[in-house]
Amino acid sequence: MSATTAVNSKKKRQTDSGPVLDWSAGHGPVTGALSATTGALAIATTGAATAMPPAWALAVGAAGALGHTVGGLKVRNAGRTLAFKASAWLVGAGWTTWAMTSGPLSWAALGSLATIGVGIGAGARSVALYEEAREDEAIAAAQRQIALEMSAERRAIAAEWVERIQRLCNITVRVLAVELWESGNGYSLDLEPRGGVTYDRIAQHAAALSGDAKLPHGCTASAGPGIHQGRAILDVTTANVLGELRTYPEDYGPLSVHTGIPWGFRTNGDDVLAFLREQCALLVGPTGSGKTNMLHTVLGGFARAVDVLTFVIDLNAGSAGLPWVLPALNGELTGEDGKPVRPGIDWLAGTYEEAMLMLDAAIAIGLHRKRAYQDLMAREDTDLLPVSAQIPQIMLVIDEGAEILVSTDRQLKALANKICEFIRMQRAMGGRTVITALGATGSVLGNLLIRREAKVRVALTGGETEGMDLAKMFPGRKGLRVDQAPFKGAGFMGTPESPGALFKAWRIKPSQIREITVATSDRHPRLDDVSAKAAGAAYARRWDAERTAWMRDLTPDTGTESGQAMSDGSGGGLNLSALRGAADQSGQPREDELLRRFREEIDAQFATAPDPSAPPAASGLNLSALRGEAEQDSPAQRAALAVLFAAGADGTGASAIARALAEEHGTTRQTVVGWLKTWTEDGTAVRVGEGTKARYVHRDHAPKPPAND
After folding, report:
1. Can you name the residues that pair with 177 across neighbouring β-strands?
2. pLDDT beyond 80 at 5
3. Boundaries of CATH 3.40.50.300 in the chain?
4. DSSP H helical segments within 246-347, as ranges?
5. What is the pLDDT of residue 414?
6. What is the location of CATH 1.10.10.10 in the chain?
7. pTM (predicted TM-score)
8. How does DSSP assign 407-461, residue by residue?
9. What tens digit of pLDDT does each residue of 493-513 get?
10. Phi and psi dihedrals of 392, rounded to 5?
11. pLDDT (mean) for 240-269
């Protein structure tokens, strides 16, 4: 027999021998009485046989009674408990003393001992119940005291706000409840305004209420709808959590589009979720507000989702998606099992051509799904495609997509039409968008399709007031002000489930992007066969080397052989290298001279720029309009005039020009309006249309007036 078999047999014999007694457990009423009576009988029998002095038993009993009394006082036992324990010791000691002198084995001795045991057991049970009742009552009393103190605090808060709302808003309210937030950052009041007043009347005075309450910066008193139209909820923040820097949670567990994707946290500490199964999202934020970081937070949530595939369009060199793609494509990341890691997003387009391929494929997927999944939707009895890990939702993320939608460029117009087609047609088939913009302006929110579909809205302010129309961004939410969120990454977020209110996005670090990419690589769903067939080769070959060459193209503009040839003029052809920082002897760029040389070389090469006084040529490239740029007062004006000229006969407006110059020159709309007025007066530009439909056209593209008869 092996050692293992012997050990198992020994354990079996121990198990079969009966229940195992726990000798460390305390005595109950029955076991305590048995222990006391059997102990007394054993001592009396031993003492009688050995002629032990009876007084010893009495002395031991007195010592036991004294010890239990002292111990009971220490734990604050009731008087009846102390009396019972002391009497039990004394009665037991008295019986032992008597039995030692008269014989412990007589019927009288044994009968009296049995009676004593029953009495001890019954008494022990009685005092145990009494002590339990006393303990429960003490706990209840403490809870009542705490509740009384909390109730007093709540009553004080309620009275304070009733008086404040009456004084500042001239509204009489009744406070039905006060809820203290678990985070300790504030509280909420359930209000019932009198006289048919609704919550928006209180929301109008949010700034005055916050100031009167002397709330810290970054804290607000914001009113929202209650359980019905006659109630209001007033959320009061007392701790400035927006000023704190919180990194993205390190829990990279699975998420789902059905249960919501966390995008940040509210002032009360709760996560704010974006439900995007049927809703699109609009994220606006000026330069420096934390919009790029917020976009990475969004992509991180999509990467964690088990039923989402993310397509990203970023015509700014694909910068929004490269951190999620390049480390995986370059083989810099490996999983725990040594397997290659998939990119954190499913498709990245950084060029116009790739973006058109992506949109064509996405639209084809939706159209094919409508036909192929009719039987599935019939079985599920739904008109929405059942999105799952087997049939994932496609989230199309477009960085600065709002600017694409309002652009007058011919290529971007075609791209915008594809985006709008995707938004209109793909809701039921699991296709939604997240579009970013530089500001919450009328040009961005003037698109009815965006306003109707993008019900999840985020406005990162960072203290920036220019181009932040919160009333248009969150219609119906009054009292929202940019100066309430002056911190980077902070702003306002509203969803159909959670009205627009203060929130802050987490700070997601580049190292976390890599960690999320590795942690979620096996979790990314695969495009279902039906959709992959519809997407075709454009989707299947999206990671081919020639398709991703632009991601790795690090060739500088200078330093190559061709660049050197152009710079020294030996290569022949058009030489523009002089424009790369040529300067006069004073160290200042000779802009007029460089522009003159640039035009001369263009004229010599193409012969297409006649003198302005001569009649315009019938065809060919006309760059004479660029002469006006050298006459402008600043580089920003020259850039603005170039944008106006590039708009062609369609023209453009002050807002579009300001957006084009905002990042590089920081130009505001008001400044551009002044330039356009000056150019209209001196004939450089022509105003077409009136009111909100007015636009400006460069004079070279303006319609010619009809000739006089």
Report:
1. 190
2. no
3. 261-458+512-551
4. 291-304, 322-329
5. 92
6. 590-698
7. 0.60
8. ---HHHHHHHHHHHHHHHH-TTTTEEEEEEES-B-HHHHT-HHHHHH--EEEEE-
9. 999 888 888 899 999 999 999
10. -75, 155
11. 91
Report which of 150, 176, 174 is spatially closest to residue 163, judged by C-alpha positions: 174
Q: What is the largest CA-CA distance in the chain?
A: 153
Tell me, what amino acid is at 171? I
Burial 481-509 (b: 16+ CB within 10 A, else e): ebebbebbbbbbbbbeebbbbbbbbbbbe
Pair of tokens at residue 69: 């009394």
Q: What is the CATH number of domain 261-458+512-551?
A: 3.40.50.300
Using alpha carbons, select from 516, 490, 518 the residue that is nearest to residue 504: 490
3-class DSSP state of 147: helix
Tokens in use for 553? 């193209």
494 three-class SS: strand
DSSP character for 261? Answer: E
620-677 residue pLDDT tens: 444 444 444 444 557 788 888 888 888 888 888 888 888 888 777 777 777 888 888 8
| pLDDT band of 474, cuts 50, 70, 90 | confident
Q: What is the per-residue pLDDT for 390?
A: 95
**Is residue 451 predicted with pLDDT exceeding 80?**
yes
Token code pair at residue 193:
């305004």
State the CB neighbour count (10 A cutoff) for residue 136.
10
Nearest partner of 631 among 668, 580, 697, 679, judged by Cα:
679
Residue that is written with structure tokens 């989402």 in the block: 308
The per-residue pLDDT of the chain, averaged, comes to 79
Per-residue model confidence (pLDDT) at position 594: 46
Whether residue 24 is predicted with pLDDT greater than 60 in this model: the reply is: no
Select from 370, 367, 418, 381 the least CA-distant residue to 396: 418
Cβ atoms within 10 Å of 221's Cβ, excluding its own: 27
Alpha-carbon distance 290 to 527, whole Å? Answer: 32
- Residues 166/186, Cβ–Cβ less than 8 Å: no
Sequence-distant (≥ 6) Cβ neighbours of residue 420 within 8 angstroms: 405, 449
What's the rounded Cα separation, in Å, for the pair 137 and 483? 52
Q: Which amino acid is at 166?
A: Q
Mean pLDDT of the region 341-368: 94
pLDDT in the model for residue 378:
95
Looking up tokens 């049995």, which residue turns up?
114
- DSSP string of 594-644, one letter each residue: HHHHHHHHHHHHH-----TTSPPPSSS---GGGHHHHTSSSHHHHHHHHHH
Confirm if 541 and 547 have CB atoms less than 8 A apart: yes
pLDDT tens digit sequence for 154-178: 888 988 999 999 999 999 998 888 8
Quick one: three-class SS letters along 148-196?
A: HHHHHHHHHHHHHHHHHHHHHHCCCEEEEEEEECCCCCEEEEEEEECCC
* Amino acid symbol at 45: T
Rounded mean pLDDT, 297-324: 94
Reported residue count of the chain is 709
> Is the per-residue pLDDT at 709 higher than 50?
no
Q: Specify the residue for token string 């706990």.
A: 139
- Say whether domain 590-698 belongs to CATH 1.10.10.10: yes
Q: What is the C-alpha to C-alpha distance for residues 435 and 661, in angstroms, rounded to an integer? A: 20
